[in-house]
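To: structure subgroup
Subject: Chain for Friday's discussion

All,

I'm putting the inputs and outputs inline so they're searchable in the archive.
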Amino acid sequence: MAAADRPLNEVQFLTVAEVASVMRVSKMTVYRLVHRGHLPAIRVGRSFRVPEQAVHEYLRDSYVGVETA
């Protein structure tokens, strides 16, 4: 079930720092992904929260597998 299809009380949100840790990238990279619209987020005050499922979907969709000949 996609994050958008879940009731909000069931969606787990991650901070930018937590997303950066999961993806093993810098916080600036996460901010860029959010600002470019590649990673959905909500704004809470001056910070962003990203649905955990959206991070997993982004990583799955970005996966580059090795094709066999």
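Points worth raising on Friday:
The longest strand covers residues 47-51.
The first helix runs from residue 16 to 23.

D.
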